[in-house]
Design a protein that fits this description.
Layout (H helix, E strand, L loop, with lengths): L3 E6 L2 H4 L3 H13 L6 E6 L9 E5 L5 E4 L2 H8 L3 H5 L1
The structure holds FE2/S2 (inorganic) cluster.
The site of FE2/S2 (inorganic) cluster has 11 residues, from α1.
């Protein structure tokens, strides 16, 4: 698996949607993936607040709204097989 970059908003609006918790959990998942895993970056408000934590994956233009760690893992294509390997 090539390294994937995930930018997670740390603005107040996204913190209300658990962006801190999602980022923490993603960092923990990354520790089990090895060097090619996921690079987690916290970024300032992206001006699309509400409806979930704002996340940009691999510098794509689209900002996705995430409500849980499972939402991000699905977008990244990281399944339970990778996590237990
Ligand atoms: S607080 Fe996250 S997009 Fe504004």
């Amino acid at each position: 698996m090539r390294q994937q970059n995930v930018k997670i908003c740390k603005g107040a609006g996204c913190k209300a949607w658990s962006s801190d918790k999602i980022a923490r959990e993603l960092i923990e998942v990354n520790e089990g993936l090895g060097p090619e895993g996921i690079r987690v970056c916290r970024v300032a408000c992206m001006n699309v607040c509400g409806g979930g934590a704002s996340v940009r994956v691999n510098s794509k233009n689209k900002i996705e709204k995430m409500k849980s760690i499972e939402d991000i893992l699905e977008v990244l294509g990281v399944g339970t097989a990778e996590l237990t390997a």
